[in-house]
Amino acid sequence: MDLSTNEIIAYRAIGTIHTPYSDMAPFQANEDDAKGPFILELLPEFETALEDLECFRYVIVLFHMDRATGYNGSNVAHPPSLGGGTVGLFASRSPNRPNPIGLDVARLLRIEGRKIYTSGLSVLDGTPLIDLKPYTKRDSKPDPGDGWKGKVQ
Amino acid sequence: MDLSTNEIIAYRAIGTIHTPYSDMAPFQANEDDAKGPFILELLPEFETALEDLECFRYVIVLFHMDRATGYNGSNVAHPPSLGGGTVGLFASRSPNRPNPIGLDVARLLRIEGRKIYTSGLSVLDGTPLIDLKPYTKRDSKPDPGDGWKGKVQ
Asked: pTM for this one?
C-alpha cells in the first residue's frame, strides 16, 4: 500500500454492542462488577461464524467509537488517572485517536444465537462492532508492567 | 449508528509495518525467536504521539491486512493447527474476515524517532498500521485456556 495516497480503508459494522451506558462509559470498570447485560449482537449473516467461539474464555472486542470527539491534530491525551497530566496519544487508550478503534478484552459468558453475553465493557450502547477475535495464550502476557503510572508530573 | 444503512467506516493508515516477510508471515511464530527487524514506522505527523509509550513493555498493534484474500461469505476458517478441520470464522484469527483487521501483541524493544522496534510480528512487510495501543494489566488475562485446541474433528 502506498501511504502517500492516503487511501481510505473502508470497513462496515458486523453488529452492535448493547450496554447500559448511554452517554458515559465508565473508564476501566472492573469487568466483573459491572451491571449489564453486555451483549454483542451480530448481524444475521454472521451467526454461523460464532461456531466454536464458546471454547474460549475471553474475546477481543473491536469497535468503532462513533461518538468520540475525534482527532483534532493534538498528539496528547489526558488520562483521568493522571489528574491534569498528559501522555502521548499512542501511549493512551483515548478514544480521540486518528482511527477511533476501541479494544476491550471481555469474559465470554454465553452465546445465544447471534448474541454474545460478556462481562463488563467500557463501551457506549449502540456502538458498532467491527471485529471479534478469540483471546489466546499469545495475547496473554504475564508481565504488562505499570506503564506511565509512576510518571511524575 | 443505524446498521441498516450499512454505513462505511473510513480509516486511514497511521504508518507502515516493516517485517522480513514479503509473501508469507509465519503463523504464530515465537515472537522472541523471530529474526527481524520488526519496525512500526509512524507517519511524521504522529511522532510526538509516541511520547511515554516507552514506559510500556508491550504494545497492541492493529493493522489492515491489505493482502488478505478477503471475506467471500464463508463463515468458516481452516486453522493450520487443525489440519483439515474447520472452526467458525470469529473463533479464528483468519485474515479473511469481513473487516481484515489484524491484531498482534508485541514486545516493545526501543523507539527511535517515529520508528518503534518490536519483537516478532506475524505481519507482511508494508502492511498499513491503523492503530497502536499500550498493553495494560486490563489486557492481561492469566487464564486464556486452550480454546478449540482439544476439539475432536
From this structure: 0.94
